[in-house]
Structure prediction request, 150 residues.
Amino acid sequence: MAENARYVSGERIKVEVEKTLLSPRPETAFLFLSTGLLPSGSVPPDCTAAFRGVPPEPGARWRAFCRAGGFDITTLPIERKLRAAVLHPEREAVKTLALKADRLMALGFRGPALGAAQETLARHILTYPEDNTPEALTRLAVRLLPPGEA
Prediction:
C-alpha cells in the first residue's frame, strides 16, 4: 500500500512523523523511511542510538532523525522555525551558551561580529558540550578577536 502514500498530503505525513518522533519510541519513525512513506533517506543500523540523549522536543528529535537517516527536511512542508532548528542548530544553541552577550561585548565584540562569535561558539559546543563553561568559551572567544584586540 506504500504506493498510495502519494495521495497523502505532506502536511499529514509531517504530523504523523512528528507524533512518532515525540513518542516514547522515536526510533519507530524510521519505519516511514523503510516503508517508502517518506521520499528519501535510509534506516541506520542502530535506530535507537540516533535518539540516545535527545530531549523530546520537536527541533532536537527532527534534527536527530534527519542526521541519522539522511532525510532531507526540505521535502516536507515544515514551519520555518522547525526547518531552522534542523538546518541551523547553532542558532538554537546560542541560547544555551554559558558565555552571554554582555561578556562578549566586554571582550570587544560588537554588531555583526558579536552575532558571528555567538554562532561560532554555539557550533563549537554542539560538538564539544563539555566546553560550555564561561572559562572555556572566554578562551575560545579571545581567539576569535582580530589581532591586537585581545
In short: The chain is about 50% helix and 0% strand. The mean pLDDT is 88. The helical segments are 10-21, 31-34, 58-69, 80-87, 89-93, 101-107, 111-127, 134-144.
